[in-house]
Structures are given as C-alpha cells and as structure tokens.
What we know:
- By secondary structure, this protein is of the alpha/beta class.
- Residues 8-13 have low confidence and may be disordered.
- The protein is built from eight helices and seven strands.
- The chain is globular, with a radius of gyration of 16 Å.
- Helix 4 links the parallel strand 1 (58-61) and strand 2 (81-86).
- A seven-stranded mixed sheet has the order 3-2-1-4-5-7-6, sandwiched between helices.
- The chain has two domains: 1-36; 37-216, Vaccinia Virus protein VP39 (Rossmann fold, 3-Layer(aba) Sandwich).
Amino acid sequence: MADKIQNAYETSKNIYDDVLTQRNIFSKLYIKLFWSGTDDNDIARKVLSYVPDDFSGNLLDVPVGTAIFTENKWSSLKNAHITCIDYSMDMLEQARKRLGSHAHIKCIQGDVGNLQMENESVDTVVSMNGFHAFLDKQKAFHEIWRVLKPGGDFIACFYIRGKSKRTDWLVKNILAKKGWFSPPFQTEKELRDILQKLYKETDIHVDGSMVYFRCVK
C-alpha cells in the first residue's frame, strides 16, 4: 500500500500544483464539480495565518508536499527552525527546489507514523492536505501529539467524509483506488472527538468537504 501511495504521487506530480491552486480551466471545473467549489488557496491562507509572522521556534511541516502553499511563508521565517517531511520522494524533490536554499529549513524523507524526533520537541506542527493520504491516521495523530511541546499548536487542513455525496463518491471510487487518498476517513464529529480528547483547545472550521483547524496541546 505504501508503494501504491509513492507511485500515485509520482504520476501526479506534474498536475498536483495546478489542481490545488486552480491554475487552469480544467482544475477549476474539477474543484467546482467534485469539491463544491472549495478554494484551497483560501484555506491555505487561513491555515498559514495561524503561524505568526515573527515565529521563531521549531516547526514541523508534514507532509510538505511540493511546498506550493508554504514556500513564501516558510522562507520568511528566518529565525525559525523548520523541518519539512514527506513520504514521497517526488513531492520532496519539488519542495527542495523551493525551500532548499534556506539554511533554516531542512527537507527530509520520513513517515508521520514514525517520526524520528524527540518527545515534546516541536512548537508547531502544520499538516496541509495530507492527513487523508496517511495510511495509519491514529498513529499520525499520536506521533504529532507526542512531538508537540505542551502549549504547542497543531494546525491542519484535510478532507472529511459525510459533507458531500459527490465528493465522497470521488474519494472512494477514484482517489482512494488510485492511491492518492487512504481510508478510513473521519466525519466531522469523529474528528472533533479525536481532537478534543487530545488537545486542551480546539478551533475547528469546515468548508465543503474540507476541514481546517488549530489545536493547542
């Protein structure tokens, strides 16, 4: 299954950014038809607004993807120490092209279910458009919680089930079968229950079939 995910993102690397940013008419139609017109650019801005412009701590970005949304923000945080992790080498190579010249940023291959990091060593974890691809989401939730310092932020956005029959059909019958998404997927209620058990503060928002949030450990 892990190889299936690797292969899926290798074959999609040339269209990944176009779809997320809706650069052409076809990606705009796809988003309108299957994702209720949800604007990933707008969600990305909201997610990144949770990270202060003067942030100077340790930040983990997992999965970094191609860094299409995070390049400008991470590059500007000169006093931070940023670790970008992705399981897909193809995604990681594109992220390195965007971020590799910055001394305060390192891009490494890794598995969110087995983070090679110390307990309570990270001030902020950001996970954009990736949780729906993780094979073992429970391990991912646990590992992110483990590496976060008390008072640290978990900031994320990803697909949730149960908001649109059309989107759910697409995910189940195409995206999951191709390896871009990995079941099971949480509903809004299931996700809220998970986050509220792990974190002392939760700020959760839903836009179509996408959720974005900030939680404080």
